[in-house]
Amino acid sequence: MEDDFDPADFPPPRRTEACRLYLISPQDVGGGFADRLKAACDTGEVAAFQLRVKDVGEHELARWAEPLQRICADAGTAFIVNDSIGLAKRLGADGVHLGQGDGDVREARAVLGPGAQIGVTCHDSRHLAMSAGEAGADYVAFGAFYPTLTKPSSYRPDPSILSWWSSVFEIPCVAIGGITPQNAEPLVRAGADFLAVCQAVWGEEDVAKVVTEFAKLFEQTLI
Questions:
Q1: Cβ–Cβ under 8 Å, residues 65 and 51
Q2: pTM for this one?
Q3: CB 51 within 8 A of CB 79
């Protein structure tokens, strides 16, 4: 039961690997965005990039995705598609991220194959996370931990949910929602394997500088 959870039972686990950065796209990925993505990825610190653009047809989105996917491939950054199993298949993406109601993990696995990275939004729910893990998800995402305009959310999990997950399960967990270099440390120390970030990076002129700030934090919090 969700109500039986006592955060004190799960202190932050000892980190053996540094947290990594998982970038989420802004809504506008045209124009000069490709150059900004390249600047971020060229730091060598971006583990994954999620293409998350709403209310755009699949054909147009596929056209926009092509140069971004190439940049990610050149940098060794995983290219993840938000919501659409079909688009992920069409692009040959590295994986897909599914919100609640956006598709089934088992369906995504059948379509995309055993090598695809499949992630699931789990809000503040341990039950949803365990269900995703049992279905074969490669990672679970909790949040929003802080207020965010990228995807407004009423969910506000305590960082202890990251400690619980990291202590009990081997599947990586992602923290998401309003995360900046200034407020990220409690989430990293709690056990987040990845931080999903959008506005904190794309809202700044020098994207490489912000990515490097996150990377320095990750290094400092690796015990």
A1: yes
A2: 0.95
A3: yes
